[in-house]
Specification:
- This protein is an alpha+beta fold.
- The protein has one domain: Lysozyme (Orthogonal Bundle), CATH 1.10.530.
- Helices cover 53% and strands 12% of the residues.
- The chain has a 3-stranded antiparallel beta sheet. A two-stranded antiparallel sheet has the order 4-5.
- A hairpin with a 2-residue loop joins strand 2 and strand 3.
- The longest helix is centred in the middle third of the chain and has 22 residues.
- 35% of the residues are buried.
Length: 162
């Protein structure tokens, strides 16, 4: 059903709005060399030097392919483009495995779209000093993803990421 869907240009821009752009390599919170919109450099991947936003968007599109595949593999329910884009954003951020085993995916596959939409908000925590803590940034991102899922509101990333 969702085999023909892929992340739209608006969906890619939505995800990019939530990821910090960095033109040069930096170490992320896990200490991994990263560039662009959160692209983690592989062990054998050279430092590309200064990166343009266009080049970073190309890398992001490649990186997001695993999240697209996770959504296609997991969700049997027919989706609109905006629903697919919202789910890809979530899967990209939390990981395909977590997405595949989520209550959100189970509710969606059971046909409970509103219940699935509520589940976006459950993914707003980070681990700080061993304890799960609500992240205001993730809370805003999850609310924007939910609004994209429910209302095809792609502008939510720009208005809520601040």
């Amino acid at each position: 059903m969702n085999d023909t869907l892929s992340l739209s240009a608006a969906g890619l821009a939505f995800i990019a709005a939530w990821e910090d752009f960095r033109a040069s390599v930096y170490r992320d919170a896990a200490g991994i060399p990263t560039i662009g919109y959160g692209h983690r450099l592989a062990m054998d991947e050279p430092d590309p030097g200064a990166m343009t936003r266009d080049a970073a968007l190309s890398l992001l599109k490649q990186d997001v392919a695993t999240a697209e595949a996770a959504v296609r593999r997991t969700i049997a329910a027919a989706l609109t483009q905006a629903e697919f884009d919202a789910l890809v954003s979530l899967a990209f951020n939390i990981g395909g495995g977590a997405f595949g085993g989520s209550t959100l995916a189970a509710r969606l596959n059971a046909g409970d779209f509103l219940g699935a939409a509520r589940e976006f908000l459950a993914w707003d925590k980070i681990r700080v000093a061993g304890a799960l803590t609500v992240s205001p940034g993730l809370s805003r991102r999850r609310a924007a993803e939910r609004d994209l899922f429910l209302h095809a509101d792609y502008a939510g990333a720009r208005s809520l990421s601040a």
